[in-house]
């Protein structure tokens, strides 16, 4: 699981990041509101830790813009602003929880775990996933593109299912390793690139449109809006 830390105070960001990684989470850090908004919009995270007093774009504005874009990733605000009005404002903008600085790290972990349980509990798995002309049936484990059956290995199936669960979202290599191969996978391995290449070959053979796109500097995404008009 990857948590995005949006925090301009480097010592705090490093402290929180090291602590979360010791608990088994992957972390990424943004040092400004603009950078945090860009990452949260273009990549997939399980949870956002959001400071309010950021140098360019306030945490309140980051929260507001994410919710306006229908991004439902849980947001836990970490801020030295401790007034009741500040808390009410952030919760009203769409934040899920608010923890004031300084805080006990075990309380932070407890709140993160509670938010993750809550968000995961809301997700109901569909039996069939459909993206563009691609369908995946979770009961039969069959994949079809434009009606043609595509044979995949178990790991290729898991990788495709992961992409199809969030079409259009960008997944980093580390995120894919964490979710498809497990947390203990070697972060320096090129296994993701190898499997992406094999998956593209099987999905795209005989078709003019490639469904898995490389997003330079970020990772990969499955597109659902690039089929030619009929």
Briefly summarize what is shown:
The protein is of the alpha/beta class and 230 residues long.
3D architecture notes:
The chain is of the alpha/beta class. It folds into two domains: 2-120, Rossmann fold, CATH 3.40.50; 128-222, Winged helix-like DNA-binding domain superfamily/Winged helix DNA-binding domain (Arc Repressor Mutant, subunit A, Orthogonal Bundle), CATH 1.10.10. Helices cover 41% and strands 20% of the residues. The chain has eight helices and eleven strands. It has helices at 10-22, 33-42, 59-68, 84-93, 105-121, 154-164, 173-181, 191-204, and strands at residues 2-6, 26-30, 47-50, 75-79, 97-100, 128-131, 134-137, 142-145, 148-150, 212-215, 219-222. Helix 2 (33-42) packs parallel to helix 3 (59-68), helix 6 packs across helix 7 (173-181) and helix 6 (154-164) crosses helix 8. 28% of the residues are buried.
CATH superfamily of the largest domain: Response regulator
Shape: elongated
Number of extended strands: 11
Which percent bin holds the helix content? 40-55%
β-strand amount: 15-25%
CATH-defined fold name of the largest domain = Rossmann fold
N-to-C order of helices and strands? EHEHEHEHEHEEEEHHHEE
Looking at the overall shape, the CATH architecture of the largest domain is 3-Layer(aba) Sandwich
* Class of secondary structure makeup: alpha/beta
The radius of gyration is 19 Å
Largest sheet: 5 strands, parallel
């Amino acid at each position: 699981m990857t948590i995005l830390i949006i925090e301009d105070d480097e010592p705090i960001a490093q402290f929180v990041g090291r602590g979360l990684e010791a608990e088994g989470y992957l972390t990424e850090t943004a040092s400004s509101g603009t950078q945090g908004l860009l990452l949260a919009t273009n990549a997939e995270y399980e949870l956002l830790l959001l400071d309010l007093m950021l140098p360019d774009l306030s945490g309140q504005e980051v929260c507001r813009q994410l919710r306006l874009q229908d991004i439902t990733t849980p947001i836990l605000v970490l801020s030295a602003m401790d007034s009741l009005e500040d808390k009410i404002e952030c919760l009203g903008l769409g934040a899920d929880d608010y923890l004031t600085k300084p805080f006990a790290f075990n309380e932070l972990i407890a709140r993160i775990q509670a938010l993750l349980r809550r968000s995961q509990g809301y997700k109901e798995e569909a039996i069939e996933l459909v993206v563009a002309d691609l369908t995946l049936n979770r009961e039969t484990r069959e994949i079809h593109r434009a009606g043609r059956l595509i044979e995949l290995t178990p790991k290729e199936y898991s990788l495709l299912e992961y992409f199809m669960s969030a079409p259009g979202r960008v997944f980093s290599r580390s995120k894919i390793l964490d979710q498809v191969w497990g947390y203990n996978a070697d972060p320096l391995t090129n296994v993701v690139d190898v499997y992406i290449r094999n998956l593209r070959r099987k999905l795209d053979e005989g078709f003019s449109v490639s469904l898995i796109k490389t997003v330079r500097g970020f990772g990969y995404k499955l597109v659902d809006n690039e089929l030619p008009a009929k």
